[in-house]
Amino acid sequence: MIQKKIDDVANLWEKTKDPKYKDLWYKYIKEYVNGINSTNRRNVSSNSSNESNAERYDDSGQGRLF
Questions:
Q1: pTM of the predicted model as reported, rounded to 2 decimal places
Q2: Which residue of 2, 25, 31, 60 could cross-link 9, Cys pair, CB 3.0 to 4.6 Å?
Q3: What distance in Å separates the CA atoms of residue 32 and residue 1, rounded to the nearest whole number?
């Protein structure tokens, strides 16, 4: 829905070069971007104590080829 408004106002700006359409266009783009960034995100644990990480980061001083 917002994409249609952005496109319509952008087309009006291209046809008329009226600054009010340019300002409205930028306003709609900001609303669109802020809507994307305001989603709820889940927390991800940063605990890396599993065995695969312990094996991967061996302190023996010898390089490993993967």
A1: 0.52
A2: 25
A3: 10
